Amino acid sequence: MSDPAQVQPVLEVENLRVVYGARVAVDEVSFRIEPGEIFGLLGPNGAGKTSTLSAIEGLVKPKSGRSLMGGIDTVKRPLEAKFRLGVQLQSSSFQPELTIRQIAGLYAGLYGMRLSRERIDADLRAIGLDSESGRRFKQLSGGQQQRMALYIAAIHEPLLLLLDEPTAGLDPQSRRALWQRIELARTAGRSVLLTTHSMEEAQAVCDRVAIIDHGRLLTVGTPSDLIAKHKDDPAVLAIARGAVTLEDVFIGLTGSEIRD
Amino acid sequence: MTSVRPPLGLAMRSLLRADSIVLLRNRVSATLGIVLPIVLVVATSFGKTQTRFGGADLVIALALTIGLLTSCVLGYSLSLAHDRDIGVLQRLRVAPAPTWMIMTSRLCVQVVSNLIASVIVVIVGSILHGLTLTGGQYALVLIVAVLGAAVFLAIGQALVGLVQSASAVNAIGRILFIVLLLLGIVGGTGILGDTVKSISGWTPVGALMTLFADVLNQSAWSDQDTYALLVSAGYIVVFAFIGIRWFRWDSR
Predict the structure, then answer these.
(1) Residues B11, B16, B22: CA angle, nearest 5 degrees
(2) pTM, full prediction
(3) FRET pair for A154, CA 20 to 30 Å: which of A23, A188, B9, B134?
(4) H or E segment at A133?
(5) 3-state SS record for B185-230
(6) Chain B environment of A114 (Cβ under 8 Å)
(7) How far apart (Å, rounded) are the C-alpha atoms in residues A68 and A219?
(8) Any chain B CB within 8 A of the CB of A112?
């Protein structure tokens, strides 16, 4: 019998609405991610990117709407949905008392896998952290921490990786290396949903992007489609310097005011 | 991925192993749970100090209670609040383990460490203070230690439930520690009058010291023990309810 998750979209978000008190953080957001697709969610600070991800991850309960992970409702069957999901939070933190080898063992166990010490060491070698296996997470550099967080997110070979600003604070070399790992995840058959502030990253990595602001999805498409679609918008033309870029479209749609 | 949902047994074992390592590497917790009570039983073993505290059974009861109070109200609550502050709890929550399992693992490891600490304190205390305990008394000490751990863990859980930041939990925990200790011990001596003395018996520290002391001196079961047991159960229910009802996994 074929797994129904293989023939459905990996993720379907339908009319998702997240409310904190009186504030609407996510307002009727809908999108879907196909198998093997890298999907970028772009938006200024406070636009609703992390809240959208949090609802999919089960960290916040949506007021209405739903998200389906391989056909599984993330609210009604959270453990099964989480089992198919790999997550790298914006500020991933692991127990400061554990070594990274112990962290790998813990998260493998949480996803139902028994990994031998040799297997973990081999995995750490593959991401260039074999010499750090006895060190604590906080003792790693920013780039090493991001590599470790991505390794843990993908340790159980999930259908979908959710990466919340995975390259924030990284130097260009580490950022490029992480992009390669995201590409590798796609090559291995996984889909990726990532949030980012970097238009360069969105254009370099994402198959499709969605721009979100004030909790509402403003537009969805491939980076080149979005440029073609909005290149004649007066707001976009007003800020463009030469040929219209994805950043011009982003600022044209979300406004020039600085968000905190 | 081979199965639809992860086996919870393996997840629980992984959590228990990780939480045990964390506790063993946490020197503050070990110091609070064992060293402090041991210092107390050693310091009171010289001269007439033991008599001033009301006898060997009360000294050891006090040491056991202080060990549980410090490791649960200060150690457990601060560790939980700190992990919440830095995002450890949120990271665990996005894994396919039920939230009750994440918390149960921590509590189990904490209770086991409290039991081990209690046995060590009783052994050292009985040697230094010349008490000879039967196997049955050791068993009763363990039962009361579980009860005491449950009382103070419930209080610690309520503290983390009501207070968001780790630094505030630390500050309020210290104040709470002093208040509970003073009410339970100083109040119990009668120095502050009969009213405070009777109140002291109803405090978590007072109730627990009553049970520990009666186990150690092999007293017959009394009404006072019944009240102490009921009061402790009441504290567990009330504070556990507060700690679960208002607990937040994220400090932001």
Answers:
(1) 125
(2) 0.89
(3) B9
(4) none
(5) HHHHHCCCCHHHHHHHHCCHHHHHHHHHHHHHCCCCCCHHHHHHHH
(6) 10
(7) 21
(8) yes
